[in-house]
């Protein structure tokens, strides 16, 4: 009864914290006169966010207080079973005194386990190689960030592909209190490449063996994780278990939750030597300093060489070798409670680990079947994983209040300098806001042709244009770089769509780069820049996803690039654009067939009826009879689709949504001295679709149009200053 009363008092006290915090903050904040576009002042918005954070912490505390006495007793029994890990019985959780009071059994922790100071940095190491592995690691990171309260430092052992992807992701994610370091696996690969390994992870599955060498010498301890684990609790709880290590223990592991190392899975199954059931290396507490002191690199190598004489190769990569080491040196092991690595392998016995799913700390999808593995509680596990998979990563940019670890970024400085009373504030903010970006979301494999004239098609799209990708791949054989603007949940729909498409699955030369949704505008020029930056060929074809190239355009452009000497001149090759109003179209197979369809009214020159100035300089009348390339003059508002060298200026990010996003880019190319050459036997056709949300805003909002006009004037002024030329956009001629 006394314990229940204490719990009630604690709950009441905790529930008062948000109210007290609210009163305190309101009394300490001054009046604010400027409102944001949601109607809240900036301070009110920050106040609401703080109250929500405290309430979330309270909910977590309530959950902890609601744990039944049976769960607590199970935890204590498990801690006592770990007694062999406690040196002289002096470590915490071994020191629990039983007291009998009023016929009831109670437990008093004499030496409670010390909490991790809230500003102590927790170090985490992950081996990540390749495109698919980079995808998996994001879900792991989300689950860690969701629960964490401490600063984190991630150490990635990676190949060059994963490093590019993850560096870009963390840079654009910009999560407070998170640092990232990368170590190229190539630098230590020679230390493990001699080990024969049957595991599908290849040489990267052995990289955990060399962490003492790969990571900085000043790093004392680290948590090592596989990419296929999901956290269900604060990682600081795992970190503080280091305090329970004896002076000799250096490796914390959970026992293997299958009979693999007992050799009972099939006839003549002969596993590597291990202590009992052995240990799973999906979650490791690694005391690097102690391992260095005992010459870990030499220790595991000698044991591996000896065992390989009879075993010939490893089946489970680093796990086999680590178990063999622990078999000979059992004093190194600290046995972690099984909840810290609930293993969902094909022959798992993990159900014996927990009484209820609420007890779980870390879920390990170590079966090749992943989410389809057979388990009584697989639905809970799957839902937990999918929650983080589709969780909006932008919400994880939470400040760690009180740690003084927030670094002022250039983006934040620019945002702070923008006048919030400016009617075009949202446009100016959209220009500098950092969008979380995940490059090469799906495996990419392409080497540019050795002739030096290869061309990559560059485009951008959102979820409502996804169906165009298949059609585009039917028309264009060459490499493609696509930037996709999507939410976290939409990305999973895209992945499912792509993996189920035979056409898209057969193409490894399409780079899919995810830019995550944030803010009220479609960042069209940011998307173009992201796709452009990942081009590896010497030339690129700048187009939009709504256009289908003529059949054979890829080969034609490569020949034109060589014939017109683009590699050594400032030339932009114009591909004439046409459109159809029909959703079902017999696509023209030649220029002659296209001209016939123009005469019949099945096709039209692009935007001739709504925006003539955009493409009229192409001179379609001349193109009808042209047999050789011809030069055209730039005019204001000209926005052709072009083939250019890769080293062109990027698109101006101030133009978001609808209006002047391509016009401004073509204008800068002209300012740099580019000539525009129309190709006589090339064309693209725009396919019909519903109007975008941004064009609807442009048409309905006078403020939108007013801001666009202001941005145009500012761009022209900046361009004139940069190139020492005088430009005007109101007349049809350019003044130099």
TrEMBL record:
Membrane topology field: Single-pass type II membrane protein
Keywords: Glycoprotein, Golgi apparatus, Membrane, Signal-anchor, Transmembrane, Transmembrane helix
Superkingdom as given in the UniProt entry: Eukaryota
Keyword Plastid applies: no
Keyword presence, Aminoacyl-tRNA synthetase: no
Protein name: LARGE xylosyl- and glucuronyltransferase 1-like
UniProt-annotated location(s): Golgi apparatus membrane
Organism from which the protein derives: Limulus polyphemus
Predominant subcellular localization, coarse grouping: Golgi
């Amino acid at each position: 009864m006394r314990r229940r009363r204490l719990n009630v008092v604690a709950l009441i006290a905790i529930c008062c914290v948000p109210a007290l915090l609210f009163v305190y903050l309101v009394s300490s904040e001054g009046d604010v006169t400027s409102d944001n576009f949601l109607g809240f002042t900036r301070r009110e918005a920050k106040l609401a966010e703080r109250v929500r954070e405290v309430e979330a912490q309270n909910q977590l505390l309530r959950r902890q207080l609601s744990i039944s006495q049976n769960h607590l007793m199970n935890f204590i029994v498990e801690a006592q079973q770990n007694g062999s890990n406690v040196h002289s019985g002096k470590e915490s959780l071994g020191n629990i005194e039983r007291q009998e009071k009023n016929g009831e059994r109670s437990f008093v922790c004499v030496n409670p386990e010390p909490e991790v100071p809230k500003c102590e940095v927790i170090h985490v190491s992950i081996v990540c190689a390749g495109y698919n592995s980079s995808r998996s690691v994001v879900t792991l990171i989300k689950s860690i960030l969701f629960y964490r309260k401490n600063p984190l430092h991630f150490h990635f052992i990676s190949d060059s592909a994963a490093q590019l992807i993850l560096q870009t992701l963390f840079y654009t994610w910009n999560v407070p209190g998170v640092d990232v370091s990368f170590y190229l696996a190539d630098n230590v690969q020679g230390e493990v490449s001699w080990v024969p390994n049957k595991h599908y992870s290849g040489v990267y599955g052995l990289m955990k063996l060399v962490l003492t060498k790969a990571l900085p010498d000043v790093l004392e301890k680290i948590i090592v994780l596989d990419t296929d684990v999901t956290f269900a609790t604060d990682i600081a709880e795992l970190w503080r278990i280091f305090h329970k290590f004896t002076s000799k223990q250096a490796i914390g592991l959970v026992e293997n939750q299958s009979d693999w190392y007992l050799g009972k899975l099939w006839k003549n199954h002969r596993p590597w030597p291990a202590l009992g059931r052995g240990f799973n290396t999906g979650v490791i507490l690694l005391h690097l300093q102690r391992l260095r002191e005992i010459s870990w690199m030499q220790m595991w190598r000698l044991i591996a060489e000896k065992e390989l004489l009879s075993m010939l190769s490893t089946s489970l990569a680093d796990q086999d070798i680590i178990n063999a080491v622990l078999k000979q040196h059992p004093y190194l092991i600290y046995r972690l409670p099984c909840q810290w690595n609930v293993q969902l392998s094909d022959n798992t016995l993990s159900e014996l680990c927990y009484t209820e799913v609420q007890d779980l700390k870390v879920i390990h999808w170590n079966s090749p079947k992943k989410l389809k593995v057979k388990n009584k509680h697989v639905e809970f596990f799957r839902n937990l994983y999918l929650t983080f998979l589709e969780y909006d990563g932008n919400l994880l940019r939470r400040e760690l209040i009180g740690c003084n670890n927030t670094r002022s970024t250039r983006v934040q400085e620019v945002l702070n300098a923008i006048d919030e009373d400016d009617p075009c504030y949202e446009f100016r903010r959209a220009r500098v806001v950092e969008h979380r970006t995940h490059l090469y979301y799906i495996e990419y494999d392409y080497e540019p042709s050795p002739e030096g004239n290869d061309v990559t098609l560059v485009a951008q799209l959102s979820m409502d244009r996804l169906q165009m990708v298949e059609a585009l791949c039917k028309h264009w054989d060459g490499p493609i770089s696509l930037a996709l603007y999507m939410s976290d949940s939409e990305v999973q729909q895209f992945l499912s769509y792509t993996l189920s498409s035979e056409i898209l699955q057969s193409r490894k030369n399409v780079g899919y780069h995810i830019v995550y949704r944030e803010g009220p505008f479609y960042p069209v020029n940011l998307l173009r820049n992201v796709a452009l930056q990942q081009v590896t060929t010497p030339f690129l074809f700048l187009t939009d996803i709504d256009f289908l190239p003529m059949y054979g355009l890829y080969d034609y452009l490569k020949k034109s690039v060589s014939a017109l000497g683009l590699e050594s001149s400032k030339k932009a090759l114009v591909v004439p654009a046409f459109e159809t109003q029909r959703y079902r179209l017999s696509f023209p197979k030649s220029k002659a067939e296209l001209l016939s369809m123009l005469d019949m009214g099945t096709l039209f020159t692009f935007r001739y009826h709504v925006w003539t100035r955009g493409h009229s300089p192409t001179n379609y009348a001349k193109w009808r009879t042209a047999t050789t390339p011809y030069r055209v003059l730039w005019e204001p508002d000209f926005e052709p689709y072009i083939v250019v060298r890769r080293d062109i200026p990027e698109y101006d990010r101030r133009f978001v949504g609808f209006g002047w996003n391509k016009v401004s880019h073509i204008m800068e190319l002209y300012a740099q001295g580019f000539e525009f050459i129309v190709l006589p036997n090339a064309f693209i056709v725009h396919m019909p679709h519903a109007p975008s949300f941004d064009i609807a805003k442009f048409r309905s909002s006078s403020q939108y149009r007013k801001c666009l006009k202001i941005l145009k004037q500012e761009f022209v002024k900046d361009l004139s200053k940069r190139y020492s030329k005088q430009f005007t956009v109101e007349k049809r001629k350019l003044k130099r």
